[in-house]
Specification:
Layout: H1 2-38, E1 43-49, E2 52-59, E3 62-65, E4 69-70, H2 72-98
Helix pairs in contact: 1-2
Length: about 100
């Protein structure tokens, strides 16, 4: 029971971090939308790669690309899944060892 409470606590922390990162990303996206709406011919877009994000701003024949930025949502999701799989593995191993 004690380890289950620990897993729930870790999951709660990771999910809170996911919410905060997603809120920050939504805020940044809305800011870039405001900036590009003032420049009528500019378009903002995002390219997703495994664990990386690249932001693009194009208009008037110019293309501005950000360097690859770590995608914290993907990193936190992988951490969440890995932690839960490790817990399930430990639980299954303990149950298998306790059978007569």
């Amino acid at each position: 029971m004690k380890s289950f409470v620990g897993v729930v606590a870790v999951n709660a922390v990771i999910m809170t971090l996911l919410y905060l990162v997603d809120s920050d990303l939504n805020w940044r996206t809305s800011c870039s939308t405001l900036i590009t709406s003032s420049c009528r011919s500019s378009v903002a877009s995002i390219s997703y790669w495994p664990f990386f994000v690249i932001y693009h701003l194009s208009g008037n024949g110019n293309l501005l690309k950000s360097p690859p930025v770590l995608d914290w949502i993907q990193v936190l999701l992988v951490a969440l899944v890995a932690f839960d799989l490790f817990y399930v593995y430990r639980l299954a191993r303990a149950r298998a060892n306790s059978r007569p």
